[in-house]
Design brief:
Largest sheet: 10 strands, mixed
Strand order of the largest sheet: 7-6-5-4-8-1-9-10-2-11
Number of strands: 16
Distance between the termini: 85 Å
Order of helices and strands: HEHEEHHEEEEHEHHEHHEEEHHHEEEEH
Radius of gyration: 24 Å
Oligomer: single chain
Low-confidence stretches: 1-25
Number of domains: 2
Mean pLDDT: 93
Length: 482
């Protein structure tokens, strides 16, 4: 009626003007961040895998952007996840190594080093920006009742493993639903199989929670435990791989559960995860929010070394990269990153932008709400949202890692150069190596002796990036050398 009245008045009074139309509010995008566990750089078809079928993640790469030079936050689980949820690199993050609250028994205390109360996290920042938030999968940043529990760190909902030791079995006796322990009747401690496969239960919870959000913008941090040991997967996922290659049984003598066909199990685990990523993408389409949702997929560190039945060398899980989980060589740190956001990310893109887990928080905050990014303080990461939208990356990006486990290590990437220090604090064993990744991706040739000035400058930058930690000290730097 008002519009017709103004038209009528316009015919009578030339001075009458129509009001400018009010622009429709821009919908905040949903965000889904999927993190695999110990998935290597070469474990997906889009990254060169020849034996394991990953059609849904390969399609996601075709429809989005694939990163070639992206890195985990640390070469092991808990510290890597800390960098992801806090936006701080390992030289500033609170959690810098795995630490266990209890032992490996069924009834031992659960949990790892808990985040401190009121830690600024990606979940908390997105809650303040109006998002519903959930973490489903493996947490590892605080056990039951601790200050680090996800419901106390910015997540409205949690379902899965609070303790990463418990996550070493895919048929656990229990999972956690927020702060409630859920018993899984029929699953027996240390059995290879059981009626309740944790990965499936976490997938179903993720689909249900996502489907319940309606018009609310949501953030789902889906931290799958595939393909971390032990090797366990339902038979239907192993079936395509049984008999495809020589598959000697694993006897369990080097840790983890034995398995009669470990290679088929490893491949089946990854394919099952791939299938469920496809289910989630399909649900987003069915909900009508496909173009309103940024989906990212990555891994928390490189593939594990050949223990516990894993056959990373057989599958070339780390590609041509040197090292594996626990190492600050490329094989322990460089991981896949695939990003898909129809209408915002052009399909089929491949980016050599250098980035790491601590860049995810500022990137997701900028995508969600520029005010949320502006409010975030003391982040080490840089947003790569502009790269997702087609901008050129910074060719001189600097990344720093420190890891007091597995021999006390540091690494610094600066442009194409990577400096690696190992066995810190052991005067007779400390090594300092320099690699030019542009010509030596496999890190076979240490050229430190040829570039003393560069080594000196990169060592100075390492010292600048390191903040001492009393809980996770670097030997020889925070404590006396041996």
């Amino acid at each position: 009626m008002k519009f017709r009245h103004c038209l009528f008045a316009l015919a009578l009074l030339p001075a009458c003007q129509t009001a400018a139309p009010t622009p429709a509010p821009t919908r905040k995008p949903n965000i889904v961040l999927i993190v695999a566990d110990d998935l290597g750089y070469g474990d997906l078809g889009s990254y060169g895998q020849k034996l394991i079928q990953t059609p849904h993640l390969d399609r996601m790469a075709t429809e989005g952007m694939r990163f070639t030079d992206f890195y985990a936050g640390s070469p092991v689980c808990a510290p890597s996840r800390c960098t992801l949820v806090t936006g701080k690199h390992p030289g500033h993050a609170y959690v810098r190594d795995n630490w266990e609250a209890g032992g490996w028994g069924e009834h031992d205390k659960e949990g790892q080093t808990p985040l401190l109360p009121d830690t600024p996290t990606i979940g908390r920042a997105l809650q303040q920006a109006g998002y519903k938030t959930a973490c489903i999968g493996k947490w590892g940043l605080g056990g039951p009742g601790s200050t680090g529990a996800p419901n106390k760190q910015g997540f409205d909902h949690f379902y899965g493993y609070l303790c990463q030791r418990q996550a070493h079995n895919f048929y656990p006796t229990h999972l956690w639903d927020d702060d409630q322990r859920v018993e899984l009747e029929g699953n027996v401690w240390k059995n290879l199989t059981g009626p309740h496969y944790a990965h499936d239960m976490m997938t179903e919870d993720a689909l249900q929670w996502t489907g319940e959000q309606g018009d609310n913008p949501f953030f789902l941090l889906l931290t799958y435990t595939v393909p971390h040991l032990a090797l366990q997967v339902p038979e239907d996922s192993m079936a395509p791989y049984i008999g495809e290659w020589d598959d000697p049984p694993y006897d369990g003598k080097r840790g983890y559960l034995p398995h009669p066909t470990p290679r088929a199990a490893y491949a089946g685990m990854i394919s099952r995860m791939d299938r469920d990523v496809g289910r989630l993408l399909d649900q987003l389409k069915e909900m009508g929010v496909d173009e309103d949702t940024l989906v990212l997929f990555t891994s928390d560190n490189g593939a594990t070394y050949d223990i516990g039945g894993a056959h990373s060398e057989f599958f070339e899980s780390n590609g041509e990269l040197r090292g594996a989980k626990g190492s600050v060589y490329e094989g322990g740190l460089r991981v896949p990153l695939i990003a898909r956001w129809p209408g915002n990310i052009e399909g089929g893109g491949v980016s050599d932008a250098v980035g790491a887990f601590w860049d995810l928080m500022p990137t997701l905050l900028e995508a969600a709400d520029t005010e949320a990014l502006a409010a975030a303080k003391d982040l080490d990461g840089d947003s790569f949202l502009s790269v997702l939208r087609g901008a050129d990356p910074d060719p001189n990006r600097t990344l720093y890692w420190e890891f007091p486990g597995y021999g006390n290590q540091q690494a610094l990437r600066q442009g194409d150069w990577m400096l690696v220090r190992r066995q810190l604090g052991k005067k007779a064993k400390t090594t300092t190596e320099l690699f030019n990744l542009a010509v030596d991706l496999s890190q076979e040739h240490d050229v430190a002796a040829d570039h003393p000035d560069r080594v000196e400058a990169m060592l100075a930058r390492m010292a600048q990036e390191h903040t001492p930690s009393t809980k996770f000290p670097l030997r020889g730097i925070d404590t006396p050398a041996e």
